[in-house]
Amino acid sequence: MYRTIVRALQNSGGLQVKIAIWASLLANIALAVLQLYAAISSLSLSLFATCIDSIFDPGSNLLLFWLHKKANKLDHNKWPVGGARLETIGNIVYGFLMGSVNLVVIVESTRTLITKSNDELNDLHIASIAAVAAALGVKFLLFLYCFSLRGKSSQVRVLWEDHRNDLFINGFGILTATGGSKLAWCTFSSQHSYFLYQHPSRHAVIDPMGAIIITFGVIISWSRTIYKQFELIAGKSAPHDFLQLIIYKAATFSDEIEKVDTVRAYHSGPDYFVEVDVVMDANTPLWKAHDISQQLQDKIEVLPNVERAFVHVDHETTHTPEHRKAL
């Protein structure tokens, strides 16, 4: 999530990515205030669950933006590979923070289920429901916009996942907050209405149970995100289609390249490191072998999601692996 604005503008979707990032940040700040009002005014645990997520959104955006700027200013003598991994580390840290805060909501909701009297029902608060509904509408628009750009930037992809999660959170929060109140339109007949009002425990569990379901959904979603981010930082291989693309690029790059021996592409953070071993004739001049391999490296490095490429030239394929520690 930590691309510089300059680097984002270097690709064709740079301006769109910048709009997605800043629109999400400004919207999250405004919606955090709106949903904080909704949670405090209604005292609904379900709306508190949605509020916590909304408050964390702008805070996380600011933290990630700061890390993004810091990654761009890292000393390359001390950090030779740059700050790309900070993006992955930031996503992991944010995921753990979200999980920890939502565990607190689960504990409080459970305590409420155990200790709350059946008569202590929250009244319906129209203004708070309207505030969360407005947040739901804004999140839906941001979701659609980031969905179209999710392949252009890992930061926008994380924002898209966040907006997707918020649609579930806000929608379900509205449902359980209203269901947890004494609503006449929640009944099917006057006879059933009388029964429900005489037995409010039928409603008393809806709001805290809704909060528990929302927080469990958030924890599960971010657990999956954390797992995927760990895969990136651990060096997961690129998909087969991408490897085939690299093989094609190398095999068709120059007539001087006789064979493509080995191709590897693996994550080192959000982007790929690519290693290519090619075979040239043993009599190829050193200057020509160097120039061809350098040009091939440059061609690979301009591909989307490639951070660095390394091209190794050999004259045969019967040798032992170049590295003592075989992968």
Automatic annotation (TrEMBL):
Superkingdom of this protein's organism: Eukaryota
UniProt domain Cation efflux protein transmembrane: residue ranges: 21-231
Family matches, as InterPro entries: Cation_efflux_CTD, Cation_efflux_CTD_sf, Cation_efflux_TM, Cation_efflux_TMD_sf, CDF_Transporter
Topology within the bilayer: Multi-pass membrane protein
Keywords: Membrane, Transmembrane, Transmembrane helix, Transport
Heme recorded as keyword: no
Entry annotated with the keyword Transport: yes
Taxonomic lineage from the root: Eukaryota, Fungi, Dikarya, Basidiomycota, Agaricomycotina
Spans through the membrane: 20-40, 46-67, 88-106, 126-147, 167-185, 205-227
Pfam families, sorted: Cation_efflux, ZT_dimer
Protein name in UniProt: Cation efflux protein cytoplasmic domain-containing protein
Cation efflux protein cytoplasmic domain span: 252-315
Source organism (scientific name): Hohenbuehelia grisea
Subcellular compartments: Membrane
